[in-house]
């Protein structure tokens, strides 16, 4: 059996070191990822000569430490995601990339070290996608937490998914308890039934609602609030989520009562009420735009059948002629199912392991039924409930078709293109 041929064509990036940490072999994938020629690294010290890290002393190099741990333990050791700078082949500087790696000692029958095998993977795109999603969530939370209003969100069925910090700061009720229905304790008993009726009507009719309620603060005092719930819909008109806001109108409410009692300045009251409503609406629209303006496409698939529950604008642009919400992937995108991606989704759902793909070809159907080549970089990431049970899958990524085609054209023209 030609083991060298197998090693050289293994899809995982691998490099083989001797006990002195000098490179004795590397497969094709490793050379592609590191932008090197085998002749240029063969026989060189792995970390001091071939791939020195300019920002970290050799003794503190996490790769060196991981290799030392693998030798000491006599078994495979995994290295968590790290940022490691790779020198450009033309000597113009360094590129900082994100890497995952493992180190496996190869021993003889006497337990003596013969070789060290490193398997590595460039996960920069995946980590940048994660960071982009985290940035979006952090921006949303920062904005919602910075607002003076009490902001909350619910899924399409009316289940609480978020309360901002103002809710906890004002009522003194912990977020966890608010999420579990504890918000009802803060509503004045005389207003609770009316508030729940309006909320139920909104859910049943799919329409916005507003009601004035008294909400108790942490000191036991009540203030009047204008509570409003608005549905957020997708392009097909289906409700994706509900956004609630409670604005303090206590002072305005008292002013109304005073004006009504004295029967004076009624026009001024109308102007103030109108201004208050416009302010609430402006803040709501700003928050809604922030939720949907994501630089990546993403969708949420629920359940074993992978049913679309949420898609953002970038994702919907991939399938402008299809109403995705409520359908399974197999129902909405039969061409994707035929390409084997349902099996991939099933595996993520069953194992809980994230799947990632870089510049992979996916054929998508046009409105005329013609299959078009698209190159996508994406991840399938499992979603868990509070009991660590898988309930769905998050799909997130980028459409890199233009970049892929440009790189291909450059290669056809004989222009060297580094792996991005």
TrEMBL record:
UniProt cross-references to Gene3D superfamilies, sorted A to Z: PAS domain
SMART domains, per database record: PAC, PAS
InterPro entries: PAC, PAS, PAS-assoc_C, PAS-like_dom_sf, PAS_4, PAS_fold_3, Sensor_kinase/Photoreceptor
A Pfam family matched in the record: PAS_4
GO molecular function: protein histidine kinase activity
Location of the PAS domain: 136-206
Iron recorded as keyword: no
Domain of life: Bacteria
Record's keyword terms, sorted: Kinase, Phosphoprotein, Transferase
Keyword RNA-binding carried by entry: no
NCBIfam families membership: sensory_box
Protein name as annotated: histidine kinase
Annotated organism of origin: Pontibacter virosus
